[in-house]
Amino acid sequence: MDVLNRDQAKERQALQDTIYVIGGKWKLPIINSICNGNKRFREIERSIPGITTRMLSRELKEMEINKLITRTVTPDTPVSVEYESTDYCKTFGPVIMAMIDWGIAHREKIKER
Amino acid sequence: MDVLNRDQAKERQALQDTIYVIGGKWKLPIINSICNGNKRFREIERSIPGITTRMLSRELKEMEINKLITRTVTPDTPVSVEYESTDYCKTFGPVIMAMIDWGIAHREKIKER
DNA sequence: TTAGCTGGTATACTCTGTTATACTGGTTAC
DNA sequence: GTAACCAGTATAACAGAGTATACCAGCTAA
After folding, report:
1. How far, in Å, CA of B30 to CA of B36, rounded?
2. Residue B21 gets which letter from DSSP?
3. Phi-psi region of A24 (alpha: psi -120 to 50; beta: other; left: phi over 0)
4. Among positive and negative, which fits the CA dihedral B42, A11, A26, B1?
5. Is the Cβ pair B17, A91 closer than 8 Å?
6. Model pTM greater than 0.70?
7. What's the CATH code of the domain at A55?
8. Mean per-residue pLDDT for A56-85?
9. In this predicted structure, what is the pLDDT of residue B6?
10. Can you tell me the distance from the alpha carbon of A63 to that of A66, in angstroms, rounded to the nearest whole number?
11. Which of A37, A43, A89, B34 could form a disulfide with A68 if both were Cys (CB 3.0 to 4.6 A apart)?
């Protein structure tokens, strides 16, 4: 395999790795919501119309395991739970921004017709 | 809804639009492969280990319908089929690059441990 | 002539992401 | 006391993305 093909394979691998981590319908919207300052479960839920409590619960758990977010329980009355994005999570910033830009341009393009 | 929230809703919508268009396991790797100069069916197939002819065939059809790629048949003997990315498809460049960058950094990070 | 390339299609199946709906236990407000 | 909020869990079912395997017709090089 020559240098060019080695790079292509590496890039394909990297692309597929990323898809593996943030694939699915909800992970990026959740990350985006939390990065926008939403901390509470119901707050995040409301910020993403269509998501169910079950999906949100599952995704948050998985993302906590993968160190993308932290879950902090404050045992006051009433108990409050706060989710926050880790620095690692914030490295998705450029990916999310690129996708937002594309989505906005896409809508503009459709509107034009 | 105030200005800030309107923006958040717009960004979330754009993000979800993009996920809708390029979601799934194979679309971005296929786009990337074609943008890297692979034109022939088997060539693309070989460049993406693990993909089946069925998935590749299905995705290529859908992407052709959505004007992301063109399919050109040259009726020589033997018949040759060439796929090429459209300019519209190339607008995914920044998204793909951001994801490749993330994937590479992700591997580096894992290697470190 | 037989093996292997091309560009796919056909059939059947699995799997899991996703949805739908209901429910819990504790707290606060009216 | 009852309605509504919080942070979820439980159960069941579904749809479709993805896999596995075989096969086709036409061509070609050994």
Report:
1. 10
2. H
3. left
4. negative
5. no
6. yes
7. 1.10.10.10
8. 94
9. 67
10. 5
11. A89
